[in-house]
C-alpha cells in the first residue's frame, strides 16, 4: 500500500511526465482521490498481438502498473492479467461494456480477411469489436499493431489486418480515440495518458492532425537524441567497436523520421534506449513501421543526404 507521501510523489512524477513540470500534481492527486471512489473501468481486448505491449506495461519508469490501477482506474477485465479467464472474461467484458463510460484498450490489429484469424470468445473479433467500441468513452490503441497495423499488416498482410482506427471507420463507429504506437508501447505513454484522462476527464492534448498525445510524440526522436551533436558534426559510426558515441544514421537509424520522446524518457526504469545501446532506431513508433524494406535504412538511402532530404525520400508516406 502506498503512503500518502509516496502517492503524492507519484503524482508529481506523472505530472512531470505529462507536462514537463509539477503543475498538474495537485489536480492529478485530487482527480485520483475522487476516482478511488468511482474509478473509470478499464477493459483490455487482445486482437492479433504478441503480448509484448501487456508485458511492457508492467515496467513503467515512474509509475508502477499496479499503483496506477489502484489509484486511477479499475482494471475490470484483461485477457491475461485479470483472474477472470475464458467465458468469465467474456461475461465481465459484456457487463462492463453494457454499463458504458469505460476505457477500452485494444492491443493488436484486427483481421478482416479471413475474419476467423482472431476470435473473441465464440465470435470472430471483427464481428463483435465494433459493439464494444461503440459503448466505450474512449478507445485507446496500445502499440503499433493497434495504432497502425504493425507487423501483422506488413509484407503480404495475410490476414487483411487493419488498425483499430481503420476498422472503426469501416464499421462507422465514431468514438474518441487515442493512439499509443510502439513495438511495444512505452508503459509511460499508455499509463500517463490513462492518468491524464482519469484526472481531467479529457483527452490529452494531441499532436497536430493526429490522435497521438502531443506530450510524447510532438518531436522527432532525432532532435532529442544523445548522439545529435555528433550528427551535426558529420561524425558517423563506421565501426561499432571504435565509434561508440557517433551518430548511427549511416547504420540505418530511423530516428530522423520517428516521432517519440524515448531518448529522454528511456526504458526499463530509465536504464537505456536503443540509440544509447549502440543500436540504430528501427522506427517502431513510426506510422510506417515495420516499413516495406529492411529493418534498418539502406546506407544508400542516407549517405551524403542531409536529413531533411532523407525525410522527404523515406518519410511522410502515410
Ligand atoms: S540519426 Fe539516429 S543516432 Fe543519429 S542523431 Fe538521429 S536519432 Fe540519434
Ligand atoms: S529508439 Fe526507436 S526503435 Fe527504439 S523504442 Fe524508440 S522508437 Fe522504438
Ligands in the model, by name, code or SMILES, are: iron/sulfur cluster
What is the rounded Rg? 20 Å
* Main pleated-sheet profile: 5 strands, parallel
Characterize the quaternary organization of these chains.
single chain
**Which outline best applies?**
globular
Helical fraction equals: 25-40%
Give the DSSP E fraction (strand runs of 2 or more residues): 5-15%
Q: How many H/I helices?
A: 14
- What is the level-2 CATH architecture name of the largest domain? 3-Layer(aba) Sandwich
What is the domain tally? 2
Uncertain segments = none
Q: Numbering strands along the chain, what is their spatial order in the largest sheet?
A: 2-1-3-7-9
Instruction: Tell me the number of strands.
Output: 9
Helix- and strand-based class? alpha/beta
Q: Give the ordered list of helices and strands.
A: HHEHHEHEEEEHEHEHEHHHHHH
On the 0 to 100 scale, the average pLDDT is 85
Amino acid at each position: 500500500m502506498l503512503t500518502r507521501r509516496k502517492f503524492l510523489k507519484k503524482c508529481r512524477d506523472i505530472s512531470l511526465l505529462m507536462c514537463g513540470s509539477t503543475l498538474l500534481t495537485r489536480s492529478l492527486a485530487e482527480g485520483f482521490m475522487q476516482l478511488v471512489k468511482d474509478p473509470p473501468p478499464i477493459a483490455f481486448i487482445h486482437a492479433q498481438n504478441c503480448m509484448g505491449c501487456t508485458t511492457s506495461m508492467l515496467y513503467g519508469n515512474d509509475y508502477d502498473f499496479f499503483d496506477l490501477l489502484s489509484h486511477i482506474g479499475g482494471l475490470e477485465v484483461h485477457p491475461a492479467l485479470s483472474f477472470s479467464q475464458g467465458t468469465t472474461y467474456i461475461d465481465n467484458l459484456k457487463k462492463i461494456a453494457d454499463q458504458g463510460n469505460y476505457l477500452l484498450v485494444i492491443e493488436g490489429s484486427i483481421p478482416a480477411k479471413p475474419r476467423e484469424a482472431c476470435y473473441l470468445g465464440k465470435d470472430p473479433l471483427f464481428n463483435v469489436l465494433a459493439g464494444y467500441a461503440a459503448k466505450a468513452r474512449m478507445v485507446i490503441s496500445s502499440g503499433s499493431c493497434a495504432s497502425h497495423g504493425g507487423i501483422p499488416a506488413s509484407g503480404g498482410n495475410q490476414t487483411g489486418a487493419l488498425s483499430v482506427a481503420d476498422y472503426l471507420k469501416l464499421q462507422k463507429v465514431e468514438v474518441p480515440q487515442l493512439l499509443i504506437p510502439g513495438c511495444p508501447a512505452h508503459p509511460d505513454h499508455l499509463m500517463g495518458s490513462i492518468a491524464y484522462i482519469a484526472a481531467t476527464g479529457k483527452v490529452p492534448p494531441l499532436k497536430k492532425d493526429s490522435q497521438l498525445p502531443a506530450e510524447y510524440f510532438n518531436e522527432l526522436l532525432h532532435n532529442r537524441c544523445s548522439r545529435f551533436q555528433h550528427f551535426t558534426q558529420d561524425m558517423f559510426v563506421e565501426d561499432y567497436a571504435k565509434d561508440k558515441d557517433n551518430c548511427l544514421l549511416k547504420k540505418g537509424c530511423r530516428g530522423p523520421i520517428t516521432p517519440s520522446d524515448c531518448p529522454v524518457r528511456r526504458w526499463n526504469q530509465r536504464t537505456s534506449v536503443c540509440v544509447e545501446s549502440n543500436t540504430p532506431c528501427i522506427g517502431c513508433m513510426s506510422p510506417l513501421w515495420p516499413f516495406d524494406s529492411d529493418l534498418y535504412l539502406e546506407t544508400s538511402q542516407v549517405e551524403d543526404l542531409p536529413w531533411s532530404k532523407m525525410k522527404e525520400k523515406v518519410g511522410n508516406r502515410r
